[in-house]
Design goal:
Elements: H1 8-14, H2 36-46, E1 53-59, E2 61-62, E3 74-75, H3 81-96, E4 105-113, H4 121-134, E5 136-147, H5 154-162, E6 167-173, H6 177-183, H7 189-201, E7 206-213, H8 220-233, E8 237-242, H9 264-279, E9 285-287, E10 291-293, H10 298-304, E11 309-311, E12 314-316, E13 322-326, E14 331-334, E15 337-341, H11 345-353, E16 359-364, H12 367-382, E17 384-386, H13 387-394, H14 398-401, H15 403-407, H16 410-414, E18 418-421, E19 424-427, H17 435-440
Parallel strand pairs: 1-4, 1-13, 2-3, 4-5, 5-6, 6-7, 7-8
Antiparallel strand pairs: 8-10, 9-10, 11-12, 14-15, 15-16, 17-19, 18-19
Helix pairs in contact: 3-4, 4-5, 8-9
The structure holds iron/sulfur cluster.
């Protein structure tokens, strides 16, 4: 059993704003000073090799707003927006298609949002047609979709299976009715169970549930009940996120301030409970920062084999694939660059309708960024660094290159969060909670603490 031996003083000491490192440089470093012409040179070079592809579609619509939500959404009850959006996605893919090497195979497909199941089944099938027209799926494609059980029918899932989806992820957050009311997301247990039953019947190979701690009215006792229910549902994976309160980015989160949010003490108690309960008797393996997977799950195997990756969709097993993303606000990633689409629906739609690339901002990745990105990725995924292996992989003398950064880990070592020796370093079980802080030591893009727009690290 994992015992998290962390005291509150450490949480207070290290709980500062910091990136989540789903990209490096972090998205706060993206700029509108890069033109599509500059970017397309990199994309063209990227497409000379038939590297694996990961394809992402952002479906922004939700019928109602959950007050904790940090996603880029469009709240509407008007389902007639769905088909127009799907056809616009078709135009966006068609515009990008000539840039893509036809030999590239899609090993990953992801529908995120918003709520992809806002689309009607007929619209899901139409989007499937578009995708299959432009992309060749690898036989072992990992195709995952975010599903909202509150507006789901069995036919949605039939349509998703028909177009190739084999994994699904559902937001639950908490089963406690009082918490659900406070976050404006009423989703009774039976609804989630029904969705899971349909998914299993239809052959979805892996089901993930998302939970969030740090929401109003949550206590260790109430969250324990939620975990009990979750365990009866036996999801293959769980993501248990700490609530990111960023009202300066998401003003609707201010509504949650009307209620008393759990104290850092309570959040820490809940986290300890989560880890102890989910890893008890080896039911789930603790992955990276906030994920849990059955020991036989690909994610757990990738972590054991040190092949885990981190990208905008969180932890992933598919190394070496480039992400081409479509839809408003979506972010694409190749080794040399990141680029993000227009973040507002009218602007994205206008660009796509005019036959333009809906580019909002981008970031080129320098050789030094690549060295730091790989280092931060290994810390976040492997919870360790082997200096000889990193030197070989990166073509540098790792210990020399990062002498200053490694020295700056001294306080973490003194606090029992990191163990260092001349050959490498290891994040301790307690240090896992602080891996964003540890990764920050290798980040040379960080603004001074008071000027960071990130969520807090713990
Ligand atoms: S359903 Fe998901 S994306 Fe939509 S508002 Fe709720 S949390 Fe945000």
């Amino acid at each position: 059993m994992n015992q998290l031996n962390v005291n509150l003083d450490l949480v207070k000491k290290y709980n500062v704003p910091g990136p989540r490192y789903t990209s490096y440089p972090p998205a706060t470093k993206f700029t509108d000073a890069i033109s599509w012409e500059q970017l397309s040179t990199k994309i063209e070079a990227n497409n000379r090799a038939p590297r694996d592809l990961s394809v992402y579609f952002h479906i922004p619509f939700c019928e109602t707003l959950c007050w904790f939500c940090g996603c880029t959404t469009v709240i509407t009850l008007n389902h007639d927006k769905g088909m127009g959006y799907v056809e616009a996605l078709g135009r966006e893919v068609a515009k990008m298609a000539p840039e893509l090497n036809p030999q590239r195979k899609a090993v990953q497909l992801h529908f995120g949002g918003g709520s992809p199941t806002f689309l009607r089944p007929v619209e899901i099938r139409r989007l499937g047609e578009i995708i299959h027209h432009y992309f060749t799926f690898s036989p072992d494609i990992e195709a995952s979709v975010e599903v909202d059980p509150r507006r789901l029918t069995r036919d949605h899932l039939v349509a998703l299976r028909e177009i190739g989806f084999n994994r699904a992820s559902m937001g639950v957050q908490d089963f406690n009715p009082r918490v659900q009311e406070a976050i404006h997301r009423i989703q009774p247990r039976e609804m989630t169970q029904q969705a899971m039953d349909w998914m299993r019947e239809l052959g979805f190979g892996s089901i993930n549930l998302d939970l969030i701690y740090g929401l109003p009215f949550q206590t260790p006792a109430s969250f324990n009940e939620t975990l009990d229910i979750v365990l009866t549902m036996k999801p293959d994976r769980l993501a248990v996120f700490s609530y990111a309160h960023v009202p300066w980015i998401k003003p609707s989160q201010k509504i949650l301030e009307r209620e008393v949010l759990p104290t850092p003490e309570t959040k820490l108690e809940v986290l300890k409970l989560v880890i102890e309960k989910l890893t008890a008797d080896g039911q789930y393996v603790y992955i990276g920062m906030d994920h849990f997977a059955k020991p036989t799950d690909e994610l757990a195997i990738a972590q054991r084999e040190k092949k885990l990756q981190r990208n905008f969709q969180g932890y992933s097993t598919r190394a070496g694939s480039d992400i081409y993303a479509f839809g408003m606000s979506s972010i694409s990633q190749i080794p040399e660059a990141y680029w993000q689409n227009e973040k507002e629906l009218p602007k994205w739609q206008e660009a796509v309708d005019a036959g333009k690339v809906p580019l909002n901002r981008a970031c080129f990745v320098t050789d030094e960024d690549k060295i730091r990105r790989e280092t931060i990725m290994r810390v976040m995924c492997d919870l360790s660094l082997d200096f000889a292996a990193m030197s070989q992989k990166l073509g540098i003398n790792f210990a020399q290159h990062f002498a200053g950064e490694l020295a700056s880990l001294a306080p973490f070592e003194a606090d029992g969060l990191v163990k260092r020796n001349p050959a490498g370093l290891e994040v301790t079980e307690a240090g896992r909670l602080f891996i964003r802080n540890i990764a920050m030591c290798f980040d040379n893009t960080l603004a001074p603490e008071g000027q960071r727009r990130h969520s807090k690290t713990i």
